[in-house]
């Protein structure tokens, strides 16, 4: 879960980061920025990488890349540690603040990167081998790596949300195509329930999965350029009302407040629900389900539009290097290797995660993946999120509000009012 820091904690963390990291060079004997060792394969060192992918469906691909890296760089040892994504942010912050136990490299969610950088926890990467051929990265994922004009990470994968659906169940319910609007989504879900007995739509009680409904009505969490908190708006109230109606109408069963992601995925894989919202990271797991042994039974479509538009959020993950690493050269080389177009193509081919390099989309391994080809145009129209230090704190209040809403403990209006109050504790000088 995400945790907000008090001003006192941030000040203390900044002071500690400066003293521990020696102004950002981590005390390492790394080559000066912009220089490269005469023979990078001779670099020596031991680094720890905290990965946050699902260990069963995605982990093997990344571990295979590590083996390739170590074969090319025999003098660099990589300690691979899988940390659950809902724990990594707090674990890294705690370790970095303490000055011990932090990994050399972390898979940082796009919303965490600027926050970690603002606290002094990340090594600047401009001019290093880690950030090779910067102009090749897609603008949106690259923008998530920047803080105060400097790069503090390298884009690993980018993502967004789509509607995943069981073609067989929709066809049995009389629908040959995926719903294009929220109204159609409701009706299709009700038809599935009536004609097949399966649930129509499984909701995931997670703040990220609320964003398509909010964007669809023209809402958002913040107006960052103008420093305005916009979460408590009529547009968002309409969006929360839509969620409430989907549950009360029976189009979506009342979701479990805990473990709803796993429950929704299991229901889709087993044919107990026809539709869910999810991203490209989920596909490797989805195809493990009995309903999708024939991959052609899985449909992928843009999220249904609200009254204003169809809007999916922009997400993704970055490679970031801890400012206190004692093996910066080895860390730079590892991040460079893991973010090459070839590495990204391998990841796209095997587990359908979307590359962040433009050139990777010309690789046959990427062009040959129909799932990536389907997600790419959805990504191109995704709604940008604000890459601000406080961005990692936005989801917890929204999650708590979502849980209260589906639990029947609040109304859409009261939910948004509560979230607004919590945001004002984070953004004290915003209107």
Automatic annotation (TrEMBL):
Source organism per UniProt: Streptosporangium pseudovulgare
Keywords annotated in UniProt: Signal, Transport
Name of the protein described by the UniProt record: Sugar ABC transporter substrate-binding protein
Coiled-coil positions: none
Family per record: Belongs to the bacterial solute-binding protein 1 family.
Database matches in PANTHER family: MALTOSE-BINDING PERIPLASMIC PROTEIN, MALTOSE_MALTODEXTRIN-BINDING PERIPLASMIC PROTEIN
Position of the signal peptide: 1-20
UniProt keyword Transport present: yes
